[in-house]
Specification:
By secondary structure, the protein is α+β, with helices and mostly antiparallel strands. 57% of the residues lie in helices and 9% in strands. The chain has ten helices and four strands; from the N terminus they run H-H-H-H-E-H-E-H-H-E-H-H-E-H. The protein has helices at 2-15, 17-34, 44-47, 53-65, 84-98, 122-125, 139-148, 174-191, 199-233, 245-267; strands spanning 70-77, 105-107, 164-169, 238-243. A four-stranded antiparallel sheet has the order 2-3-1-4. Helix 8 (174-191) runs antiparallel to helix 9 (199-233). The longest helix is centred in the C-terminal third of the chain and has 35 residues, at 199-233. The relative contact order is 0.13.
Length: 268
């Protein structure tokens, strides 16, 4: 029996090899065409359960106090940080990042208020708040304040006061927030067996939400590429590192996509 099966297999492969190759090519072409519908999602909703209490708490807090996606770029200049040359380079880097279309704002040590430069009464401080960009700001006093202030140390400045961070903020996606609220409302109707629940409407909202996530992910990916491109222009000025949750999610998606292509071709 095994011999007959082997003989049949050999006849199919050797005598109809051209037809088999044609069928295989058509099959690969069909799946290759359908692969355009494949997408990778590294959002919180894809990594957590739908009714996860921690996710619900996070959304509640975010709705109440607001939250933004942001990147963190650290900068360690070749020269001491609190020198005119290093701060000038930092200002140029910040200004370039602010010009990116997908970036809402950039916060750095150049922008935060200096409350003790020099120390003045509170009545005078309100109308005379200095920053490092102020020509009258004293760099030594600014270094001391920023390095010891609980508001800035280990946030915008490390303990050695030789590395600073820039917070690159992305605008909040109001459309995605609205779609999330609509989906949660429909899911609540579904869970309570309400007669007002419409399964087609929930499916439409979920489809729109996924499409919006894909668009948002693509925009942030383009922004991350732009930030990295700007970083290469300042490699000679010091050491730069990029971090943040959006960057981690984007890199995960890129690594998985690359692995799928590599192993897929290997299997083929």
């Amino acid at each position: 029996m095994w011999f007959r099966l082997l003989h049949l297999y050999e006849r199919l492969v050797t005598e109809r090899a051209l037809w088999l190759m044609l069928a295989l090519a058509l099959l690969i072409g069909f799946f290759g065409y359908q692969s355009r519908h494949f997408s990778l999602d590294a959002s919180a909703e894809s990594l957590l359960l739908e009714d996860d209490p921690d996710l619900e708490l996070f959304r509640t807090i975010s709705e109440r106090y607001g939250s933004q996606e942001f990147l963190v770029l650290t900068y360690t200049p070749e020269q001491p940080l609190f020198t005119e040359q290093s701060l000038s380079t930092l200002s140029e880097l910040r200004d370039q990042l602010r010009q990116l279309p997908t970036v809402e704002s950039v916060v750095s040590v150049m922008d935060v208020p200096l409350l003790s430069n020099p120390p003045v009464p509170m009545t005078e401080l309100v109308s005379n708040i200095k920053t490092l960009e102020d020509p009258d700001a004293n760099l030594d006093m600014a270094r001391s304040e920023l390095a010891n202030s609980p508001l800035y140390v280990n946030l915008l400045l490390n303990l050695d006061a030789n590395t600073t961070a820039l917070q690159i903020n992305f605008p909040r996606d109001e459309v995605q927030d609205q779609l999330l609220e609509e989906r949660e409302s429909l899911q609540a109707l579904r869970d309570t067996d309400s007669p007002q629940f419409d399964a087609d409407e929930l499916q439409a909202v979920e489809t729109a939400l996924q499409q919006r996530r894909d668009e948002r992910s693509e925009d942030i990916g383009i922004a991350i590429d732009s930030v990295r491109s700007i970083m290469t222009e300042y490699e000679d000025a010091g050491e730069l590192h990029l971090g943040g949750v959006p960057m981690i999610a984007d890199d995960i998606i890129r690594f998985v996509r690359s692995d799928l292509i590599t192993f897929g071709l290997g299997v083929l």
